[in-house]
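Morning. Coffee machine broken again, so started the prediction first thing and wrote up yesterday's gels while waiting. Chain of 300 residues, entered below exactly as on the submission form.
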Amino acid sequence: MKKLAMATVAVLGLSIAASASAAVDEFRIGILGGENAQDRLNNHECLREKTEDLLGVPTKLFAPADYNGVIQGLLGGTIDLAWLGASSYAKIWLTDADAVEPILVKVNVDGGYGYHSIGFARKDSGIKSLDDMKGKTFAFGDPNSTSGYLIPSIEIPAQGYSMEKGDYFGDIVFSGGHEQTIVAVANGDVDAGVTWADGLGDWEEGYNSGALRKASDSGIVDMGELVQIWQSNPIPEGPIVVRKDLPAYTKMQMTGLIASMQSMDSDCAYNMFAGEAKGVMPITHEAYTSIIEARKLKSN
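Came back before lunch.
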């Protein structure tokens, strides 16, 4: 029995060593749109540094102008890891089911991993609900955003407000991202918009996490000047994914690094996850089948 145990340990050691020797020669992290590129790069620099130290290879951050830049990078093999929205993950899976695999999902302070699409307007606009939006301009973020387009484009019409241009809203526009939507509403360039938030905590702080929290933290917007006018049903938080063809050892290393981030460097975790979070937990493809079906419906 002792010899068998020693042999087993030896085989496991050889297996881990072989996996390690098959490691990548560089690592590339994609950052989904939602705020300006420099802020995205700054907020993820801590992850880049920790990844480079862990893997021992040059690590680069990529912050494309839109969601599709990260999607195409993962599909084309030029990005190795990214935190996606559920709709962006669905698009990748529908294009190539073998391109990426989900490894982790952000967990909110209440232990759940849901969030909401939030409709909002300026408080001085007099808009208090979608009933006040007839003939007005409504801004959405990105066609590949879950909360910034997919879910509201399904739920809002289901509640009786057509999203065909001119039917109910005066105009439907895409801002390019969550931060752009928030700025456009705050500046009065559009009448209302949608963005994302966990819906926990205080409105005055932009909730606990999400695009409103980041905008509030950075001073881009005064939440006291905005009012919520709509909220979606809970949406499953998007997954952190890795390219499926990465070495197993590299996947394990990155999963461990991100899983440890909250306890290892809470400031880095706060920046990565757009506010307060409990941490992360494992997630699988099955959590996103409903979002995949929603994307199929929108493509028909």
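Residues 65 and 104 are 24 Å apart (CA to CA). Going to sketch it on the whiteboard this afternoon.
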